[in-house]
Write a structure and sequence with these properties.
alpha+beta; single chain; five-stranded mixed sheet; 162 residues; globular
Length: 162
């Protein structure tokens, strides 16, 4: 019983990168990335795989709705699995924090959550994943501060939106 509690606590703490200093691989830390979104997704994928130890099932999954003439439904940045939980990870990257417009997290509003959850449901349907499996929506916020990336990982950032 105590071992289970300790394991759950460690899993919970893995979601807080500020507990230990992060050292990213040099090739992922360009001072001013040419493609900010792609650079952010690469950093997030590295973090998810190497720090959180999740298994990545897919990246940049573009889903099309078969009944609507293959119209693009949406894109999922990172799909991962931690033990029995399926995790859809939205990545937001910004070159700086603006006092007027906010940071990377200010772009995740109701409409974005709706878009991500609908796309996740379509991905599950197309991949034969049961609706009974635990699902979580996490967010990775990355801001380049003086040429160095700062990452904030938020597990369970939002729930299913209908």
């Amino acid at each position: 019983m105590l071992l289970g509690f300790i394991q759950k606590t460690i899993r919970r703490l893995r979601g807080f990168p500020e507990l230990e200093p992060l050292v990213f691989p040099a090739d992922l830390c360009e001072e001013k990335p040419e493609n900010l979104g792609r650079a952010g997704e690469n950093l997030a994928a590295w973090y998810v795989e190497n720090v959180l130890k999740f298994k990545i099932l897919g990246r940049n999954e573009i889903l099309k709705t078969p009944k609507l003439n293959q119209r693009v439904q949406g894109e999922l940045d990172i799909i991962a699995k931690d033990e029995d939980t399926l995790i859809f990870i939205e990545v937001r990257a910004r070159s700086y924090f603006s006092p007027i417009y906010g940071g990377a997290g200010s772009t995740i509003r109701y409409k974005k959550k709706l878009h991500v959850t609908r796309t996740a449901r379509l991905w599950m349907r197309q991949n034969g994943v049961s609706d009974t499996i635990p699902v979580r929506f996490d967010v990775v916020l990355i801001t380049w501060n003086q040429g160095r990336p700062e990452l904030k990982y938020t597990p369970g950032a939002f729930k299913w939106v209908e």
